[in-house]
Amino acid sequence: MDASLPAHMRPERSFQGFILALQRFWAEQGCVILQPYDMEMGAGTFHPATTLRALGPKPWNAAYVQPSRRPKDGRYGENPNRMQHYYQFQVIMKPSPPNLQELYLKSLAAIGIDSAVHDIRFVEDDWESPTLGAWGLGWECWCDGMEVSQFTYFQQVAGFECAPVAGELTYGLERLAMYVQGVDRVYDLNFNGREGDAKVTYGDVFLQAEREYSKHNFEVADTAMLFEQFKMAEAACRKYLDAGWKDDKREAHLMALPAYDQCIKASHVFNLLDARGVISVTERQSYILRVRELAKACGEAWIHTEAGGAA
Amino acid sequence: MPELLLELFSEEIPARMQAKAADDLRRMVTDKLVAEGLVYEGAKAFATPRRLALTVHGIPARQPDLKTERRGPKVGAPDAAVQGFLKATGLKSLDEAKIQRDPKGDFYIGLIEKPGRDAIDVLAEILPVIIRTFPWPKSMRWGARSGKPGSLSWVRPLHAITATFGLETEEPDVVKFEVDGIETGQTTYGHRFMAPEAISVRRFEDYEAKLKAAKVILDPQARKDIIFADAKELTFAQGFELVEDQVLLDEVSGLVEWPIVMMGSFEEEYLAIPEEVIRATIRNNQKCFVVRDSKTGKLTNKFVLTANIEATDGGKVIVSGNERVIRPRLSDAKFFYETDLKTKLEDRLPKFEQIVFHEKLGTQAARIKRIERLAAEIAPLVGADVAKATRAAHLAKADLLTEVVGEFPEVQGLMGRYYAKAQGEDDSVAAACEEHYKPQGPADRVPTDPVSVAVALADKIDTLVGFWAIDEKPTGSKDPYALRRAALGVIRLIAENALRLSLMKVAASALAGLSVNPADAQKLPSDLLAFFADRLKVQLREQGARHDLVDAVFALGGQDDLLMIVRRVDALGKFLDSDDGKNLLAGTKRASNILSIEEKKDKRSFDGAPDAALYSLAEEKALAKAIGEVKAEASAAVAKEDFAAAMSAMAKLRPPVDAFFDKVRVNDDDAKVRENRLKLLNEIRSATRAVADFSKIQD
């Protein structure tokens, strides 16, 4: 931890200071620090900076915060640590550097978790995303018995082998910050590190949103419209993928990213429909499969683009 | 003799894979050594979260030399043949060859000596192959090399390989090889946090000691012992008792290199949750042990955690951190439990109409209805109250839809019991909610409450008949619906409760309740019966009993009362252990053998009663008389289900059979006498069939 930081910027005092400390740390490791992707998604992995950039031979190191929307996890602001909107901090390094575990541990130190007093463990957790056609091996990282991060070596994404393999780290920011700040309720997190009247809590920023979105997600979201939107996003994705090939040789693709946006869209719309409880168990599987098909097709397009293709 | 030290140092290996990996490493290396002619004295393998290690001692320094002889051309053969021989044997000239004379002439013999190689060179050749082909259940690629084809796959990134070989008294050599850019050496690393520095090691002895100094306990058993002893002591000191859990202990010992056991606590209010749920929460999510109050025998609000570090603050932060994680988990569990209690079990049932049990067998709701009907039918046969059995079958699956079971599937059934009791169900009905899943395996308890037994049988028989009807029988190692376990469960329920039940009838009734109509519905119950016979054989074999006797009893036909089959097999086994039994079996087999030879010769069978007028010898008459008596006596005993008595009756056949074979020539010159004697032999066979088909018994 940087001792020169003013108190309100210190990661154990302030949620935003916590995020900034992580960003600074990973910037120093040579990552590009991106801003959140401007679309609703269920996890930081969906960001094209991870899903697509994990494919192809070109090196890629990036870190970013991504709001994660999980409509089903909403609890109307009444649960101390479950929300339909929360932040993930995502790091992706391709190829995975040999000292990625050490870097991760140093990043914990940078946010105030001292490995001399905490019990930090790497516990087996294989990662699989059926919607993205992706899997990897790694761990959930434990700090004193609490899962604080996910650590994955991507083996396959969008149905394609990762060559080389990328290492991915996902930090659950609120949970970690709660631990570091010593609060038991997420809404009590000190957001800006100030005290007294100047203090802004996580609840000040997000509690109302949690209530409103829980109502929206579970009770009101327009399912007829959402079903329609799913179909539209699916069709648009296919259309852009078709139209993106440079020529009939299908060797170069010029529109993988816009097509992939529609895949992200379809996935989120599906999550909303799922939260509304209008998708049956058997249909659920087929929706997941449809999103996966889109993701795979986008991956196929991506590896024919400049950033995704061979040098 | 020299010894090998091998260590594969990697990122964290999943706990569940460590023991098998250590074993595989030992097996693969020692098998290969032996195949290379290097017979070793002993080997031991170890695993920690970050390393697999192997020591093999007593390896010869060199392979033995191999000498082989090769026969060459005849003396005076054409030059081309001679040159070919010299080339193949590596001899410089024919002067180096021997000449050997045999009936065909004089031949050159070349002696090829293949000198044994140094063991260290052999190791350098075999070890990289073993590493590249190591059978991890799941392995991965990593790093820059993973961009190229043929890169190494390992369970997690492999960082260093230590491989040394040499005598105890000397500085060992590094076994030099390289795998995917990792070169062997003699450098390893200590505990990730407490002693991360590089350590130079020479052989196993100093390796293990240096690791220990660097806060790594290499031997998994030693780690287990430490955790177990410390946990017991820690709890005992406070008047508590550790709830022992071998599976958890195995796992926890695979998560630490330097186990430090500590105790934490949680709010007493959570003790209102069923103990099994507290335990599941703490064990599954946090890998911690739960603790009992030694006076009351009840769980207390303590838990035992195993950290991987001696924290500089003595572990305060770690304990409070773990408590902070366990608290919300228990709070969730309590919330789930209390929420569950608000809904009656039967009110959950309509939801089963939406849940498919199997696409061809309909919904869970339909299945529950079938089990209810079958349980009601079985109830009177097992002494259960029909209304209670029906009620229990009605409710038994409802807990699958509760929050607690959704979170912790392993407490299914048990929660049903809690909820049934809470809503005031009869004790037997509540017990059946849990016990109808039993027995889950050969070691599990068999329920004895008739209501539980009725529902347990109905549940298992519905499953078996259902999957038989849609032709989803187990094949080879594949048994996705655990049908073998279900059949064994039925066998144990019947045998251990001494139940009388016609399996064919129950199976036929279960079949009639299904909505599917299999093509061979007629054959199904008997097919299923054969499956039961197989399971019974497997079970007897595992108990060390004679499984071939099952065939001998089933071959009688019409046997579908499992209890009677088991008893008959048991009595038969005891009989065959006696001298009378052994000799009678031999006599019966002899009769059968003679008969089958003569039947073949004459192309006819020798059925039918012998003619008493044709008996000429006393032994014939005595045998005929004995057969008549034994038949009557044995059938009477079988009718009374007294199989031991039936066997004693059989024993009376032995002396006349022995005497008959001693004194009587079966193939008499008089065709009529011969035929009559063959008929008498056939009578022996048929007399023994009162208890079993002796021809199916192996010698």
TrEMBL record, chain A:
PROSITE patterns: AA_TRNA_LIGASE_II_GLYAB (PS50861). It catalyses: tRNA(Gly) + glycine + ATP = glycyl-tRNA(Gly) + AMP + diphosphate. CDD domains: GlyRS_alpha_core. SUPFAM superfamilies: Class II aaRS and biotin synthetases. Keywords: Aminoacyl-tRNA synthetase, ATP-binding, Cytoplasm, Ligase, Nucleotide-binding, Protein biosynthesis. GO terms for cellular component: cytosol. The keyword ATP-binding applies. One of its GO terms (molecular function) is glycine-tRNA ligase activity. It holds the Pfam family tRNA-synt_2e. Its main location: cytoplasm. It is found in: Cytoplasm. InterPro entries: aa-tRNA-synth_II/BPL/LPL, Gly-tRNA-synth_heterodimer, Gly-tRNA_ligase_asu. Tetramer of two alpha and two beta subunits. HAMAP family: Gly_tRNA_synth_alpha (MF_00254). This is Glycine--tRNA ligase alpha subunit. It comes from Bradyrhizobium huanghuaihaiense. The lineage of its organism: Bacteria, Pseudomonadati, Pseudomonadota, Alphaproteobacteria, Hyphomicrobiales.
Automatic annotation (TrEMBL), chain B:
The keyword Membrane does not apply. It comes from the Bacteria. It catalyses: tRNA(Gly) + glycine + ATP = glycyl-tRNA(Gly) + AMP + diphosphate. Pfam families: DALR_1, tRNA_synt_2f. It is an enzyme of class 6 (ligase). Coiled coil: none annotated. The keyword Lipoprotein does not apply. Keywords: Aminoacyl-tRNA synthetase, ATP-binding, Cytoplasm, Ligase, Nucleotide-binding, Protein biosynthesis. SUPFAM superfamilies: HD-domain/PDEase-like. One of its GO terms (molecular function) is glycine-tRNA ligase activity. Its EC number is 6.1.1.14. It is found in: Cytoplasm. Residues 594-686 form the DALR anticodon binding domain. Its main location: cytoplasm. GO terms for biological process: arginyl-tRNA aminoacylation; glycyl-tRNA aminoacylation. GO terms for cellular component: cytosol. Belongs to the class-II aminoacyl-tRNA synthetase family. Tetramer of two alpha and two beta subunits. HAMAP family: Gly_tRNA_synth_beta (MF_00255). PANTHER family: GLYCINE--TRNA LIGASE, CHLOROPLASTIC_MITOCHONDRIAL 2, GLYCYL-TRNA SYNTHETASE. This is Glycine--tRNA ligase beta subunit.
